[in-house]
Amino acid sequence: MAAGGSSSHRRLKSALFVGCCGLAGAAPHFLAGTASLAPAITLAVLLGGYSVRTVLLPLLRRGSDALVAPPAGTDPLPAVDVVVAARDEQAVITRLVERLGTLRYPEGQLTLWVIDDGSSDRTPELLAELQTRFSQLRVLRREPNAGGGKSGALNLVMQQLQGRWLLVLDADAELQPDTLERLIPFAEAGGWSAVQLRKAVVNPSVNLLTRAQAMEMALDTVIQEGRLASGGVAELRGNGQLLRRDAVEACGGFNEDTVTDDLDLSFRLLLANQCVGVLWDPPVREEAVLTLRALLRQRQRWAEGGLQRFFDYWPGLVGGPLGFGRKLDLACFFLLQYGLPVVAIADLISAPLTGTLPTIWPLSFVAFGLSGVSIFAGCRRGGEGPELPAMNPLNLALGIVYLGHWFVVIPWTSLRMALLPKKLVWAKTLHLGAEHELDDQPVVEDPAAV
């Protein structure tokens, strides 16, 4: 299991990050007149060019959305292990296994693995019953507080796997029966070491929050595809990630010292020159969280893991063998995704203290403009799976305004990482299943600390 960095080092790097962004947000307020806008306008032009190159040009070049079909030939499909780490998933585990049992794949070449990660509900009993019905189902059990979170569970099952590929799913995942028949040939023909399926929200009509998340997932895949097409990098997203087993083993398995195993593995694959691809169709379907509280808890974990990977692997990213195009892509992505929100908050705080107007707005226009174009392109594109929200002015405005939550989550998470000693806690969203009514959606925490 690879360790990315110690808690003390991450805390120091977080403090440096917050300090630098704070200075960048405050400094323009001490410049005279229109000169105060010069830094933001300069960055807006540079990052705007990146946005055009990453989103608009790939959209213009993209051909038709033809369905992925297996390449011609008679080569047999390789063995695949479908892997799910499940903790307290009684609401969805039966549905999951039953649907995975409908996947079409050559007999004897597909094995389903579920790691019961210390469940305290009826998940163990349900899995025992399912094993009597599905001969390809294998169940591993971990004791409560075994440590390592989802990464620990995945490392445990890695010792048992024999297939060339493993498909990692969350317990609420839904796949089309032909997913593997299309996904595996795509990965093999493309020479990918990993492929991320587009994540499609199954419950977009529940409320405005779930509708916004459906648009966000489409946005994310559009940007991922654009980054890859323009010479940048794509990243894994946890649910629906296909991994070549030998590539994961060469990276040391899953990092148990991180709260986002997928983002961490993305960077270790990148530094090992292992390519990650993205596939729009077929998608993996998943539940969106139903409440603001659950959303903020989930996004804090994503923000923390996202920053951790940059802090842990920056020497290799900056000074390693990555080409200029990939380094530029990572730098621009880091500035837009993580730097801009912290700088924007520092700018807003500095404005009343200095009696001046905010200065970062030109750069914010670029970020929200990029988001709006990506939402529009993704939802208009459509695809298999649940229907995406219609692209009308109200939905587009909802999607853009919704993304403003990152301007709260990332600064708060960055400040917390800089000031508080880190105790790793893996938080999982409780999956409710289609039969549950709208309710406050709790978050379950693994109290294990590393």
- The termini sit apart by 13 Å
Query: Helix and strand string, N-terminal first?
Result: HHEHEHEHEHEHEHHEHHHHHEE
Number of strands: 9
Q: What is the number of helices? A: 14
Shape: globular
Structure report:
The protein is of the alpha/beta class and 450 residues long. It has two domains: 7-63 and 321-427, no CATH class; 80-298, Spore Coat Polysaccharide Biosynthesis Protein SpsA, Chain A. Helix content is 51%, strand content 13%. The protein has 14 helices and nine strands. It has helices at residues 7-26, 38-61, 93-100, 123-133, 149-158, 179-190, 208-229, 245-250, 261-271, 292-319, 324-354, 361-381, 393-402, 406-419; strands at residues 80-86, 110-117, 137-142, 165-169, 194-201, 241-244, 276-286, 426-429, 443-446.
What does the secondary structure layout of this molecule look like, with pairings?
Blueprint (H helix, E strand, L loop, with lengths): L6 H20 L11 H24 L18 E7 L6 H8 L9 E8 L5 H11 L3 E6 L6 H10 L6 E5 L9 H12 L3 E8 L6 H22 L11 E4 H6 L10 H11 L4 E11 L5 H28 L4 H31 L6 H21 L11 H10 L3 H14 L6 E4 L13 E4 L4
Parallel strand pairs: 1-2, 1-4, 2-3, 5-7
Antiparallel strand pairs: 4-6, 5-6, 8-9
Helix pairs in contact: 1-11, 1-14, 2-7, 2-12, 3-4, 7-12, 7-13, 9-10, 10-11, 10-14, 11-14, 12-13
Produce a short descriptive summary.
51% of the residues lie in helices and 13% in strands. The protein is of the alpha/beta class.
Output the keywords.
13% strand; seven-stranded mixed beta sheet; disordered C terminus; 450 residues; Spore Coat Polysaccharide Biosynthesis Protein SpsA, Chain A; alpha/beta
